[in-house]
Amino acid sequence: MRIPNHHGITFLLGAGASAEAGLPMSRGITQLMIDRLSDERWDRQAGYALNFVVSAIIADDGRSGHRPDELPDIERVASAIELLAGRSDLEISPFVASWEPALTALEAAPPREPMTLERNLVRTLTGQRPGSHAPAATEISGLLRQWSDAQTRRRSLPSSWSANFRKAVAPQPDGRELVKLLKQLIASQLPGQRSPVFFRLLELLITHLGDILDIDDDSKFDYLTPLVQLDLPPGVPLTIATLNYDLGVELVARRAGVEVSRGIEGWASSGLLNFTDAPVRLLKLHGSLDWERERRRSALAPRQSLVSDDSRTDRPFLVFGQREKLRAEGPFLQLLEAFRTALYSAETLIVLGYAFRDGHINECVAGWLAGDARRRLIVVDPYFPEFSGWGADADFRRDLLRWGEVATAGEQGMRRLDIRRESASQFLADIRDVGPRALLETAFAARESEEGEQRE
Questions:
Q1: Highest taxon of the source (predicted)?
Q2: Residue 139 sits in which domain range?
Q3: How far apart are CA 417 and CA 446, in angstroms?
Q4: Is residue 237's pLDDT more than 90?
Q5: How many structural domains are present in the chain?
Q6: pTM for this predicted structure
């Protein structure tokens, strides 16, 4: 039997590869988001909007015959929110006479309570807590009420208003935060204006996602260490593609003293991926918690650095939601092409904890398998379906099972698919103990031997 060379291995990691570090899976993240935004006192409307979206998806699943007691995964929720936020720009929008009444009522509500906005503005402008009897805070509170009333009723401000305002403001307030709060204060008191609640909700989800995926103990990822310590020939880089936002691979590589190249460090200036000679190439196909999204700028304006100086940023640059997978903005199209290139130079793809829900990734895998009969796939997932099945619930995993039943390689008719229903830590411990070549021999030889015994 022809066993692929070491340099013919590429890894693909999904959420299941990070679950053993204590990170929640997709449906678990939905529950955590609901809990967090239910306590979001400063933006209750966003919490109401999330509850509305999740409840509508569950109700629709029930009408379709699916389980009505199962939360939707967070990417499905994010996709729905994204569509709702930009629904007026959808091509079908001219054909929709009216939207769900509850949706319209939700958007018509004030974005935030005016008093809450006032407190935030006072704190931003003066650095003082409102109600603390500080002169600047008291002065600003009165001026803000005056200004808000003038905006709402279309009245002119007193001639002394600007001068008094400048005197009360701190020397260096946060300008961006100030502009945002002023816009929200105006919107909160203008009747009949549509609230950008779903845009705010998307921002909140991404912000909270960073908190949810933040690990307090780097050692929780230690089970991934064999991944960056594979015994490969010198000069042959290992390609690891991941759909996860966390920094698990980077953390274990740093702890193990293994250099990793992500290819994006110089992307902001050149617009191109640039990999070093590091032994591990890491492709973060959907972004990373330490990548920072730029604020709005001209398409031709110079880019800032993509990688934040901190391991976490408040504005992480992520591909979030099922409908955003091919995103023109940022390095994501180039990363997908880099994955395709690495995949097509490999003879073995090892998939850890990926549920095959990304259509673009699945197309890459399907095309790679179809392109050469010598290519083999190992899927490591303790929850992988046992039977191929048919019908409406069939997905790419079941397609793989059906394909694996008939796909053969070589004159001996060797199988090309090996499903290992075990955890990522178990598999990586095996590959550490026996080495990648021996593990591949065991995986495919065992399948061949088993089928021979069944034929006898």
A1: Bacteria
A2: 114-188
A3: 12
A4: no
A5: 3
A6: 0.75
